[in-house]
Design goal:
The chain is α/β, with parallel strands linked by helices. The protein has a 5-stranded parallel β-sheet with strand order 2-1-3-4-5, sandwiched between helices. The chain has helices at residues 11-23, 34-43, 60-69, 87-95, 108-118; strands at 2-7, 26-31, 48-51, 78-82, 100-103. It is built from 5 helices and 5 strands. It has one domain: Response regulator (Rossmann fold, 3-Layer(aba) Sandwich), CATH 3.40.50.2300. It starts with a strand and ends in an 11-residue tail after the last helix. Helix 3 links the parallel strand 3 and strand 4. Helix 1 (11-23) crosses helix 5. 41% of the residues lie in helices and 19% in strands.
């Protein structure tokens, strides 16, 4: 089974993403901060990371840059999922190394669509619907 890591401090937004990912056949790991995300990454190698921009401590932009510069995590696709949805926010997120940027609220169909775009289908153990 494929694994996704959600880094999101809002419980409601985290649960929405979790549900959409489960419907797409993913096992889900969660973190509410960079520290929790680093702990998850010490134990697991997710197939994709969903990352909020507004987090306690460091911003998602900083975390994305760090992950893309780390040889352990630089090949993992990162999808920003944020309420910050201006064109500048999206541009800046992609400039930090993210593979995609979607805005909240997000529907299950959009989660499935974005997964198809960023993950090589041969790497998926179950078809993303």
């Amino acid at each position: 089974m494929n694994t996704a890591l959600i880094i999101e401090d809002c419980l409601v937004d985290r649960k929405v993403l979790e549900l959409g990912l489960h419907q797409s056949g993913f096992e889900v790991l969660t973190a509410q901060s960079e520290e929790e995300a680093q702990e998850q990454l010490r134990q697991y190698q997710p197939d994709v990371i969903f990352l909020d921009v507004l987090l306690p401590g460091r911003s998602g932009f900083e975390i994305c840059r760090q992950f893309k510069n780390d040889p352990r995590t630089n090949q993992i696709p990162i999808i920003f999922c944020s309420s910050k949805g201006t064109e500048l926010d999206k541009f800046w997120g992609l400039k930090q190394g993210a593979d995609a940027y979607i805005t909240k609220p997000v529907a299950s169909q959009e989660i499935a669509r974005i997964l198809r775009e960023v993950i090589n289908p041969e790497n998926l153990t179950q078809e993303v619907s």
